[in-house]
Amino acid sequence: xxxxxxxxxxxxxxxxxxxxxxxxxxxxxxxxxxxxxxxxxxxxxxxxxxxxxxxxxxxxxxxxxxxxxxxxxxxxxxxxxxxxxxxxxxxxxxxxxxxxxxxxxxxxxxxxxxxxxxxxxxxxxxxxxxxxxxxxxxxxxxxxxxxxxxxxxxxxxxxxxxx
Length: 163
Fold this sequence. Notes:
The protein has helices spanning about 10-15, 30-40, 55-65, 85-95, 105-120, 140-155, 155-160, and strands at about 1-5, 20, 45-50, 80, 100, 135. Helix 2 packs across helix 3 and helix 4 (about 85-95) packs antiparallel against helix 6 (about 140-155). It has a four-stranded parallel β-sheet with strand order 2-1-3-4. Strands 5-6 form a two-stranded antiparallel ribbon. It contains seven helices and six strands, in the order βαβαβαβαβαβαα. It has one domain (about 1-105, about 135-160): Rossmann fold, CATH 3.40.50.2300. It is α/β, with parallel strands linked by helices. It is globular. Strand 1 (about 1-5), helix 1 and strand 2 (about 20) form a beta-alpha-beta unit.
């Protein structure tokens, strides 16, 4: 099995998954060309992990145009992404993305402010990292997460789902 991940290289290596990292960039046309070139030269890729959920439609679109069957099923390339964002949840809902994680972004804002307050008022220093996630979001729990994330993003939710 060969996978393409950005980040978790050592963890994947420990379970025997070959990993290669590359950057497609934030500009859609260039990113799509880079992805197409890479997938054309690396026919053994079966997973794509996008570290920016907004780029997952680009990866899926390129793989789909190339006939690589990128939907979340038991054939072709499988795409996973990060963050329970409208675009990630939209991809899961449409069957294009297998899953994403939720890092608890609401906690990532609250917990540091709480820590700063405790430090300022009481001299308290955290004894370790504070984990705010991850939770894996898939079709199995999508309805719960979509309701929750819609509350956070409000009216902008549908506009941010770029599928």
